[in-house]
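Worked Example 4.2. Read the sequence first, then its structure tokens.
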Amino acid sequence: MTTVVAPEARALRRARRTIAGQIAVVITMVVLAAGVIAYWVLLRGQAAETERQLEFALGHGLSATPPGCTYLVTPQGHAPAGRLPFTLPPMPPVPNDGDVVTEERVLDGATYTIRTVNRGGEVWQAYFNEHYLISDREQLLLGLGAAELVVLIASVLSGYLLAGRAIRPLGEALRRQRTFVADASHELRAPLTRLHTRTQLLARRGGAGPAELETLVSGTRELGAVVDDLLLSAQACSERPQLEPVQLAVLAEQAVAAESVRANDRQVDLRLSRSPGLEDVVPGVPTALRRVLSALLDNAIGHTPPGGSIEVILANPDARHVELRVCDTGTGFPQHEAERLFERFAHGAHGEGRRFGLGLALVQEVVAGHGGTIAAFGKPGVGATFTLRFQRA
């Protein structure tokens, strides 16, 4: 089956290749510059060594002539130290006493640097065989070329891997954006369709009774709740508010009090309990944590049938943490679905509508933003427990 590649994926791959290429070019240029500098330093050193050898030979005469590298030629036209390995070329004119002529020639297949000097009317020559210097230069160039090739290949591969790691968060963000837009569109379509249908029916009937108006109000409220969740999700992802000491027990009392009327209407027992000597102060944002508690209670009430119970429990599992559990005797869920409950717009198979929407996804984002953890435990037909754990302030 052919896989359809999204435009974002193609753009990311193109960006990855571009970044990898740029990294490879930069690293290769740096290594090339280092090689050029090394070669220049070698040339300078070899030139100085040639100069030293020639001056030494001309200055110290026959006994100091090093065999096989530097040759000293007398005014009579032969090498005192032995037979020359090349045919002597014509001497350049050096008319004045103290004049020096330096030149480079290829003699019998070998390259020599020749220095000719006039000393009191006698012309002396020193020949320096550059065979070993040229060999050193060739070896250096070969090594630099091989190193450049290895560095180029390594930089391309490492640049590709590093670029992939660098753009992976961007790719994930684009994927989430596409999924979010698709899911949000799906989630908004249902209430909008119902509102449009009801409005058409009212227009055909020519009037609206209290029941029809209440239905419209309920639909707009549902639509507004979805939009609020979308805004809260965007806010949670973009803002990093300042944390302050928050009494978790106070927020829990307020949340339980706010949901008590709804729980009574559904004939659900809602209560709050806390362990003796509770230390409940945590660093956080009161509004965000209040939203977390409200979403958990809303989820519990929506999934607990009449006659059931919901208990909010606060305790200190150890000296450094505060734990809040929301336990219900509702429809529950299979434990293997626990992770999926925190996905955006997740739907379950039990309960009243069993639509989690953005609620639990936002809960997880807010809890993670506070440095806490959330875990879900459930069993079909028995109930569910959501456990939050925060570090104490």
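Now turn to a second chain, presented in exactly the same format:
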Amino acid sequence: MSSYFEFFCQNLACKSTQNADRILGTCYSMCPEDEVKLREAERLVHVLEVWGSERKLVKSYSRSAADSNMAVPHLLRPYSVLVNTVQYLLLDITRRVDVPESVMYDFVNDRLRAVRQDITIQRLHPTQCVDLLEPMIRFYVYYGYVLSGHPLKDYDPVLNKKYLLECLKWYLSCCDIIAKEEGHIDKLSDFFSSLDLNTRGKTKTKLVNDQVLLESLYILCNPDDLHPLYRYLKMAKDLKGQEKLKLSYEIAIANLQGNYVKVCRLSEKLCPLLYCAISTYLPILQRRALNVMCSAYNNKRLTVPSAALVRWLGFSTDRDASTACSHYGLQVNDNMVRFDKTDFKTDARLHIPVIRNIRKKFEVSLIDIFTYETCK
């Protein structure tokens, strides 16, 4: 089955008949009544859909079958309901602490896929798509880093990267369409910026649509890919000149040049989500850098202190640096590493370092992760 992004692009070719064929959803709750009855009867209500004595069901994702018709108005949620659903999932459900993070991630991911399914079937306008996709991308970036140390049975990084790139490319494609229609790309939508959300704590929180952040994420989520860099070079001057976007471009160029120390040094200037994006890539960078150092510092007697590796390659502590070196076959004694190119294990699995507490490092809350703006 093709991705939602591919389906969206295919429908652009038949834009002239799109409005006539559009299906408008008439389900004004987060879960269609038919699904609510079925899941309650079959006892398929998720623990995260229960708040004390109250049940708050959210439409789950279901694959389309050959004999089923999913384009039924009363089963589809209109744009306003999809907005409320995304808000609820990211600003309420993610704060639940009564289940493991991996369980919460699986639940939210499934419900976000159902949102994207409703977007695709209804063929929502690009201005509406970007508002819905932007917070989803934040979700996949943040939890892609937070859960990166979890076992495969609890979290699949390959699937997370697939969903992340699908949403990113879809978002950027919508940006390009809006730019052509309106003749500018400075401001895609003011909807999220003006939207007040009453959370469970009765405090007002705003979801935002930050194109600069998303363009930067496209670069740092694909540091080995040239296409994001080509896109950057073709951007309008006002967008290209944004500080965080320029910094992301510099980091990607330094990575392609093999200047791994510069990548780690510049990464300390990034905002929380951009830091999550590059940190997810950090284990690959560290392995490459250590392999290069085995040739540059190849010596039977001389050693390099692990404290230097912490400064150069972004390890959290001397112990983390020593553990990574030992993992790749290098000899470590009293936090002193001996680099010998004959010792390096090129076939060793990727070493995942200890995950840093992003919220503590940047002094931000989980809600801040989904709502901050790079320009402020």
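Notes for the reader: The longest strand covers residues 331-333. Residues 157-182 form the longest helix (26 residues).
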